[in-house]
Design a protein that fits this description.
Strand content: 15-25%
Radius of gyration: 17 Å
Number of strands: 13
Shape: globular
Structural class: alpha/beta
Number of helices: 8
Largest sheet: 6 strands, mixed
Helix content: 25-40%
């Protein structure tokens, strides 16, 4: 059994678990701790350290840790941040977390991690052509996968549509904040997905994030030329993808986005 460790930093919670990479499943029940406020790298680092320590018996000392964040990652730093503290911007996060944890760290965009997981174990496995994985949560994350290969750091949740940043109208957090019904929210999702479809002509959309468990409430309302399906790993995909990224970074240190 090959065990790696994944941490998923979100706007509301930081979640972590050891992952059995042969099965694509958690090797132990995940631990979730609310995201600290303010959500600085240092404050998040303390939560991450607590989560890693919680699983000390399952994850040997020195084993790699994958950490996902809701923003792009270039050379171990974050060029901009929408849903965490602005102190993340240009902060040397990868080096900081390696020093804090005393382990190799792979810092990765959260939607890219979800995309990796869905390609290896989920709804996009062995799917040819261009797959766009979207994560609907605090914001909208996106991952582009072409013939199984990730094209990192797409930020299609920030497309301007009808004068709005797309995620400010169509993220699942907006549905909750504005008290939208599923049909009302689906109208906004329709506008978003049809726009992305026009721009990129994908072969498949995969819809992830915690809200994907309610797929039957809104998925059938969407009318697109492109097939659109719910993620199979639901909101586990970020942690599983982070664990994949950690393992791949050890095997191929020059090939993942955070190493540039």
């Amino acid at each position: 059994m090959t065990i790696s460790f994944g941490i998923d930093i979100g706007g509301s919670g930081i979640k972590g678990a050891p992952v059995d990479l042969k099965k694509g499943k958690f090797a132990a029940k995940r631990l979730r701790i609310p995201t600290p406020q303010p959500s600085t790298p240092q404050a998040c680092g303390e939560v991450i350290a607590a989560i890693v320590e919680h699983f000390a018996d399952e994850v040997p000392a020195g084993s790699p840790v994958g950490i996902t964040i809701p923003g792009p990652v270039q050379h171990g730093t974050v060029p901009f941040m929408a849903n965490l503290s602005q102190e993340w911007v240009n902060f040397p996060a990868n080096d900081y977390f390696e020093d804090r944890l005393g382990r190799p760290v792979s810092l990765f965009n959260d939607a890219d991690a979800a995309g990796l997981a869905e390609v290896k174990y989920g709804a996009a496995k062995k799917h040819p052509g261009l797959v766009i994985v979207t994560t609907l949560g605090t914001g909208i994350g996106t991952a582009l996968i072409h013939n199984g290969v990730l094209i990192p750091n797409s930020e299609l949740g920030h497309l301007e549509i009808d004068g709005y940043d797309a995620e400010k109208r169509a993220a699942s957090s907006i549905k909750e904040n504005e008290g939208l019904t599923y049909p009302e929210w689906a109208e906004r999702l329709q506008r978003y997905y049809s726009h992305v479809e026009m721009l990129l002509s994908p072969d498949l959309f995969v819809v992830g994030g915690g809200i994907s468990k309610d797929w039957e409430q809104f998925g059938p309302l969407l009318r697109l030329k492109t097939p659109i399906v719910p993620a199979q790993l639901l909101n586990k995909a970020g942690i599983i993808g982070a664990a994949i990224a950690a393992e791949e970074a050890v095997k191929h240190p020059d090939q993942l986005a955070h190493k540039g």
